[in-house]
Write a structure and sequence with these properties.
The structure holds 3 protein chains of 3 kinds.
Chain A (H helix, E strand, L loop, with lengths): L1 H20 L8 H13 L4 H13 L14 E8 L7 H19 L1 E8 L4 H11 L6 E4 L6 H6 L8 H7 L1 H6 L2 H5 L2 E2 L2 E2 L2 E2 L9 E6 H6 L9 H14 L13 H12 L2 E3 L10 E3 L9 H4 L1 H17 L14 H6 L5 E5 H7 L8 H4 L5 E5 L16 E4 L6 H13 L1 H9 L7 E2 L5 E2 L6 H4 L24 H14 L16 H19 L7 H14 L2 H16 L1
Parallel strand pairs in A: 1-2, 1-3
Antiparallel strand pairs in A: 3-12, 4-5, 6-12, 7-10, 7-11, 8-9, 13-14
Helix pairs in contact in A: 1-3, 2-3, 4-19, 11-14, 12-22, 14-23, 18-19, 22-23
Chain B lengths: L1 H7 L9 H7 L1 H19 L10 E4 L3 H4 E3 L6 H5 L3 H32 L3 H16 L2 H12 L5 H8 L14 H26 L3 H9 L4 H26 L6 H8 L6 H4 L2 H11 L3 H29 L7
Antiparallel strand pairs in B: 1-2
Chain C lengths: L1 H15 L3 H32 L3 H7 L11 H7 L3 H32 L6 H13 L4 H11 L7 H4 L6 H12 L3 H9 L4 H9 L4 H16 L3 H6 L9 H16 L15 H28 L3 H4 L2
Classes of the chains: A alpha+beta, B mainly alpha, C mainly alpha.
Chain lengths: 559, 318, 308
């Protein structure tokens, strides 16, 4: 991983060097140049070649937009989910002023952020899009959690033609491999610009106290769900005051999905329903099935183990109604012994940051991660449209919006400002190139990182790693993933659910109802009975029709 | 509508033409004008948009340009097989809320009226109003803290008394009364204001006269207060009936949350639809459900209003 | 202050003729209302004391009936940015303006609609009532407000839709009904126009109704969060008070129940004590206002005496 970062850094410096080196010379014909190089890069599938040719494109001119009419100063609005900065407002405004200076100079535009508050974000997000009156230009979106595909189909997003992308977002166009652009198409048109050059792992698993697991006799840490049982039992007996895992009732889907990943080679399709109930297998990617309907024995075993966990007292008795659990913060201070979340969260909890006081209280404290699929080596990388930028179809200045995005994503100055704030105020770079906080820094008023919610165009070439993270451990795990992972195979598949919508919503409902009881061991009767009941309910809700319909659409696309 | 109009015509208006009537009552008409304009602008103007329930909504084409798909948006409700039980739950809860809610509100208003100590009246009424201000999210949190198995307030008392712990969150049957109690607790202070004001409006001389005639407290309540509250009660009921198929989402969602063990007795149309749209957000489906609820509410109100009009024309809404 | 005398007169009269049944009713009333009031105030005490409790105590021991040691941390957090005072201002302005305008329109309409000789009263009543049965739904309403009326990010989007409701108009109509028709008649005989009759004869008698409906309107404005959540985007720096509370209280839930949860910055999740402090700050003023409105209910008792 370190090597990769280094390589990227080198590439970046090279690009920068080329840009300054052979600037001004051939600016006259730059438009042609750009498209030519972009074409050649589009035909190539190799990422590193792409980076290099991206360099060429950039190298051809200081100003890729010399021929674009930017005489009118425009305001580009960027819509993102999240909260308007309050405590950090002053520093945020300063950062935006600085950023807008650069944007004005480079493309005569300025940026404004339009925050969609987390409260009711889904309806407010869609309503704002429905206005179609130019309220927003750039739209942060995601295929798996923010309706990217439905909105592409609904006409909320603008089709981005290759010409547009080449002309107005040349660096982005060049840096995204053609195969990745393919994954952003619906009906032959590009709608999304993927965040495809940013390493993040959001596969879930259990975060636990490695030191306690060792004390429980698991010298290699937790390696399986059975080990997890041993671990919880040990914690409950040794530390009676601790709720091993103060879960809330929403975790059921991740647990069920995690169990299945650990006991099969199932590869789920994103974005059909939240429990990701349909997919293929690693060996046979394009035959659709639903393990929830077919893997009866495995589910029965799951139900039995969860009943055991419930009886051990892993979670609170009323876990299904527990919405005010603060499990993650409790983990930091040593009040619980496990957290179920994804790798990104683990990278935080494993590190000795000021918030994670367990490491201060107990020098032996260590945090392990049992990721779902560990037993079977079944890990799938994140879809590249997990974060993506789209342009609103109502935008009055789509060209300028693309130009602004191109700068935000690729211009080091813009990127650092937008992601980390003003250097020396909100962050500092250490001698070894890591990001830390400057003297007199106050998190409540000075922090910019994570407040602009720019999850739709982060770029590993420009990222500055956080000094507080334990990169040795993190990179070790990333390397492990890289050995076993497969890329997300269904990026091109956009399910047409209009005909099966009512079946899917009924299946969602049934799954929520039964899976919550199964995953927290709250069912009455035997495990066999509850699973049989669940599966027959799925059947009568039409799960077979959905599977067949998805198979039909798969066959159309992949055969 | 034509029928209603002819009925209400007073005798001396019967001979007037429409325009003469407009002219004669222009001042009263003008007094109604702001309200009429208001409802035109904010309620009637968006109404044609109900069409969205019948189309496959496309942002670029707008509501009326989108493709017509008939009743497809209603399908998910119908095929769930739950429409009946959801509608039943919704209506039964609302009936309980309306009947018990009004009963308790009248009861409290009358008692308040009988109190002679001004400060007691003032303070108790203010206090009873308090629950109305607590947001339903907070109500949900309070109920959970009161009732939960491990750390709940009630179970704390039970254990200290040496009794067994109570486990309401895994027993669906205890929830209808709990929901009703919470509702009454939250709404009664507010609802009783209407009745209290109505009692205040009762002719003071009539009350005095009754006292002079030797009517006791119960008789005053029975023969003066209750009858004079009748129109208010009827109107409140008629109004509430219009929304009888519309559930109190905030109350149910915040208290029951997404605990499937309790759905049998606590799932209402709103909570079901909410769960469905959380994963698949869709304006058209939501509008379809709203339309379904409106149509049923409309039928019920028209029927009841018709009956009320037959019996006591004065009390009907229109 | 003649009314005050009437009131005293009545009370003394009542005392003289206090019979057994009155005693029973009164005794029962005191007991019942006291118990009921206790039920109502306990949760509120819990909220207030939680807002003064430190977060660590809440996590360790749950919400408290009485705070163990009082801390103002939560209040400091809420008032830190100073934005809350501007929110107060906006909310108060909206409440005052909205209530006054709404009240005048509602009372005019209510009066006109209860006039038995007004030939259009049923048509207009139905026109108004119908809107409580059929609503267009979210999308059409939203698009009309933003695309046609251009009310996005305008406080008018909060002020206007709450001015009146069918329910309040019908309620007012019902209240006016209880005023004897002879008053209108006598006004007519004196040669007064409808507007004059309404303003100088009817309005003064409507005090309890105006107080009740005014209270409902004011509560509606004070507690309003829905229109704000739809129409006031992040571009509006100062949001109404309850909307701020709504956002704070609901944020956690919205985050936990969605896939978006992976982005939560846990520092953003409001703590219990902060939620409660917000609830106290948002609710306090209107609760304090209530006793003053009540005065008008009490004075309403003399309405009957004015007759003649």
């Amino acid at each position: 991983m370190k090597k990769k970062v280094l390589a990227l850094l080198l590439t970046t410096t090279m690009i920068a060097g080329l840009t300054t080196g052979c600037g001004g010379g051939n600016s006259g014909s730059n438009a042609n140049d750009t498209s030519a190089t972009a074409d050649s890069s589009a035909s190539s599938n190799n990422a590193s070649t792409d980076n290099a040719s991206g360099g060429d494109a950039a190298a051809s001119s200081d100003d890729p937009w010399a021929n674009v009419d930017t005489s009118e100063h425009v305001v580009i609005t960027y819509m993102t989910t999240g909260e308007t900065p309050t405590g950090t407002k002053e520093k945020y405004d300063q950062m935006m002023t600085e950023l807008n200076k650069i944007l004005t100079e480079k493309c005569n535009a300025e940026l404004q952020t339009y925050f969609i508050s987390w409260t009711d974000y889904l309806s407010n997000y869609n309503l704002t899009l429905a206005q179609m009156d130019g309220t927003v230009d750039l739209v942060g979106t995601a295929s798996d959690w923010l309706d990217a595909w439905p909105n592409s189909k609904n006409g909320a997003f603008l089709e981005l033609s290759e010409d547009m992308l080449k002309t107005y977002a040349p660096k982005t166009w060049a840096s995204v491999p053609a195969s990745n652009w393919e994954l952003c198409k619906y009906d032959g048109e590009i709608y999304l610009i993927p965040e495809d050059n940013y390493a993040q792992w959001t596969n879930h698993g259990f975060i636990y106290r490695l030191d306690w697991a060792k004390a429980a006799g698991l010298s290699n840490g937790v390696q399986s769900w059975e080990d997890m049982t041993t671990y919880f039992r040990y914690v409950k007996e040794t530390y009676p005051d601790i709720t091993p895992w103060d879960s809330d009732g929403t975790q059921y889907a991740q647990m069920a999905g995690g169990w299945i990943a650990s006991h099969s080679d199932y590869v789920p399709i994103d974005g059909i329903n939240s429990a990701a109930m349909w997919g293929g297998t690693r060996g046979d990617l394009y035959t659709v099935y639903s393990p929830f309907a077919t893997d009866t024995d495995s589910l029965v075993e799951f139900a039995k183990m969860m009943k055991e966990w419930d009886e051990i007292g892993v979670w609170q008795t009323d876990v299904l109604n527990n919405t005010s659990s603060t499990n993650r913060d409790d983990y930091r201070i040593g009040k619980v012994a496990a957290e179920q979340h994804h790798t990104q969260t683990w990278t935080d909890l494993v590190s000795h940051t000021p918030a994670n006081t367990i490491y201060d209280d107990d020098p032996n404290a260590e945090t392990g991660f049992f990721y779902f699929g560990q037993e079977t080596g079944n890990v799938t990388a994140l879809s590249i449209t997990h974060g993506a930028m789209a342009v609103s179809a109502g935008s009055k200045n789509p060209e300028r919006a693309l130009m602004v995005y191109d700068l935000l994503r690729n211009d080091p100055d813009c990127y650092k400002l937008f992601c980390y704030g003003i250097e020396g105020v909100s962050y500092e770079i250490t001698a070894d190139g890591l990001r830390t906080t400057p003297e007199g820094y106050n998190q409540d008023t000075d922090n910019i990182n994570g407040t602009t919610n720019y999850w739709w165009g982060r770029n590993d070439d420009l990222e500055i790693p956080d000094a507080t993270r334990d990169w040795d451990k993190i990179n070790a795990l990333y390397d492990e993933y890289d050995k076993i992972k497969i890329e997300y195979p269904y990026g091109q598949f956009v399910a047409e659910v209009d005909n099966i919508r009512s079946q899917i919503s009924n299946i969602n409902e049934i799954t929520t109802n039964y899976m919550k009881q199964i995953a927290f061991g709250k069912y009455s009767g035997t495990a066999e009975d509850i699973v049989a009941e669940y599966q027959s309910a799925l059947k009568s809700a039409g799960i077979d029709e959905v599977t067949a319909e998805l198979q039909r659409q798969f066959d159309e696309l992949y055969k | 509508m034509g029928k209603t109009k002819t009925k209400v015509k007073s005798n001396y208006n019967a001979s007037l033409t429409f325009f003469q009537k407009v002219k004669k009552y222009r001042v009263l008409l003008l007094m109604c004008l702001p309200a009429v304009l208001f409802f035109l602008a904010f309620s009637y103007a968006p109404m044609p948009g109900i069409w969205v329930a019948f189309v496959k909504y496309n942002y670029r084409d707008g509501i009326f340009g989108s493709k017509f798909i008939g009743l497809d948006n209603f399908k998910f409700l119908a095929t769930s097989g739950k429409l009946l039980s959801l509608t039943k739950n919704t209506i039964l809860y609302n009936l309980a809320f309306i009947i018990l809610g009004n009963f308790l509100a009248v009861f409290v208003a009358i008692l308040l009226n009988e109190m002679r100590s001004k400060w007691f009246k003032k303070i108790s009424q203010t206090i009873m109003f308090l629950p109305y201000f607590i947001s339903q999210v907070l109500v949900g949190i309070l109920v959970f803290n009161l009732l939960n198995y491990d750390t709940g307030f009630v179970n704390g008392i039970l254990t200290s008394l040496g009794m067994e712990r109570w486990q309401p969150y895994s027993n669906p049957n205890v929830w209808p009364p709990i929901m009703i109690i919470v509702y009454l607790w939250q709404q009664t202070g507010y609802n009783s204001v209407v009745y209290f004001a109505a009692i205040m409006g009762i002719d003071g001389e009539m009350m005095e006269a009754a006292k002079v005639d030797g009517a006791n407290g119960f008789q005053r309540i029975r023969y003066i207060i209750l009858p004079s509250l009748k129109p208010t009660i009827v109107i409140l009921l008629l109004f509430a009936l219009g929304g009888i198929v519309k559930g109190n989402f905030g109350l149910f969602y915040n208290i029951v949350g997404t605990n499937p063990i309790l759905y049998n007795t606590t799932d209402i149309i709103e909570t079901y639809v909410y769960r469905a749209t959380m994963t698949d957000f869709n304006f058209s489906t939501a509008s379809a459900v709203g339309l379904y609820q409106s149509v049923i509410g409309f039928i019920i109100v028209m029927t009841v209003n018709f009956i009320v009009k037959k019996i006591e024309p004065d009390y009907s809404l229109f | 202050m003649a009314k005050k005398e009437d009131l005293d007169l009545m009370e003394s009269g009542a005392k003289v003729k206090l019979g057994t049944s009155d005693k029973i009713i009164r005794g029962f009333g005191y007991v019942f209302l006291t118990l009921y009031s206790i039920c109502c105030i306990v949760p509120f005490i819990i909220i207030v004391s939680t807002s003064f409790t430190s977060e660590s105590v809440i996590r360790a021991e749950g919400v408290q009936f009485l705070p163990k040691d009082i801390t103002l941390t939560a209040y400091n957090m809420v008032t830190k940015s100073g934005g809350i005072w501007l929110s107060y201002l906006v909310t108060i302005l909206l409440t005052v303006v909205g209530t006054l305008v709404g009240l005048s329109i509602i009372s005019m309409t209510g009066y006109a609609l209860q006039r038995k000789d007004f030939p259009f009263r049923n048509a207009i009543s139905f026109f108004i009532y119908f809107t409580s049965l059929f609503q267009a739904g979210l999308a059409p309403y939203y698009l009309l407000m933003t695309q046609t009326y251009h009310l996005k990010d305008s406080y008018l989007a909060v002020l206007l839709p709450l001015l009146m409701s069918p329910w309040l108009i019908i309620l007012m109509k019902n209240f006016v009904k209880s005023i004897p028709h002879e008053i209108t008649e006598s006004g007519k005989i004196d040669g007064a126009g409808d507007m004059k009759i309404f303003v100088s004869l009817i309005l003064p008698m409507l005090k309890p109704a105006l107080a009740t409906i005014g209270l409902f309107l004011a509560l509606g404005y004070w507690n309003e969060w829905y229109q704000s959540s739809l129409f006031l985007s992040s571009r509006v720096a100062v949001k109404p008070l309850q909307f701020t509370l709504y956002e704070i209280v609901n944020k956690t839930d919205a985050l936990k129940n969605s896939v978006a949860g992976q982005f939560i910055n846990l520092a953003d999740i409001p703590q219990e004590s902060v939620k409660m402090a917000n609830a106290v700050l948002a609710t306090g003023p209107i609760v304090l206002l209530y006793p003053f409105v009540q005065k008008y209910f009490i004075s309403g008792i003399t309405v009957g005496a004015v007759k003649g």
